[in-house]
Amino acid sequence: MSASVRLVTAAHLPELAPDDQELLHALRRRGVETEVAVWDDPSVNWAAAPVTVVRSVFDYHLRRDEFIEWVDRVEPLTSLQNPPEVIRWNSHKSYLLRLMEDGFPSIPTEWVDRGSTVDLRAVLAARGWAEAVVKPAVSASAHGTVKVSEDNLDEAQAHLDGLAHQGDALIQPYLYDFETTGETSVIWLGGDQTHSVRRPSGMHTSLEVAHVGAPLEPTAQELEFARAAYDWITPTPLYARIDVLNTRDHGLLVLELELVEPALYLRHSTAVADQFAAAVHKLV
């Protein structure tokens, strides 16, 4: 029997990341024929399943152009989720510019265009930042992110130069609120706000660390703020994780709208995994 749903993964995770396996199990509990496919596997017939859900594609940021070409190829063949339009704009952090232009506060950012040269020391001095982070505009789980201080400015400058040679980059102040408070991630599945987690403090670089979170009930202010950011997203996504940070100096900030392959922390609740499976099933 042909699969009704395909869950998309990366070649190094042929059975999905552990968290995404919970969705696979939940779909099969519902009797939905579901299989896992690697996004860049040339043997896959993407038209064979009516619904295709992007999940553990944790290498897309290393090959974004190829990944977006895959999105373009698959779009007319199946119901690709999240919607292809959302995947395209969300896979580059320039969407944060539009978000801020529409009135949502985010971390102050110095944008560095591909091919340009920026004096990192001058930026820190002009902005009054004692410490900062440098990161690529296409990234996941802090890939390519370096913390900058007076002690490593020369190395950080070389890193920034390398990033800007390959693509766009960002310079942002380092906020100690990441360590003292931690991110609040508010999650929507199938249009419903289902659960929230507190994500790890500090900079994390491994998949396993990035996908660990403790369930929590966000404050009413955090929830309202995250909901406004979710409502900003067009078209409406099947799944979304809105990461916010309550800071001492800047108040509530939107950190990211995670809409391509976010950890959704399904391992915390079978009921939430079942709810996600029901939302996917409705698309079949």
UniProtKB/TrEMBL annotation:
This protein's UniProt keywords: ATP-binding, Nucleotide-binding
Domain of life, per lineage: Bacteria
GO molecular function: ATP binding; metal ion binding
Signal peptide: none
Keyword NADP: no
Keyword ATP-binding: yes
Ranges of residues in domain ATP-grasp: 96-284
Protein name: ATP-grasp domain-containing protein
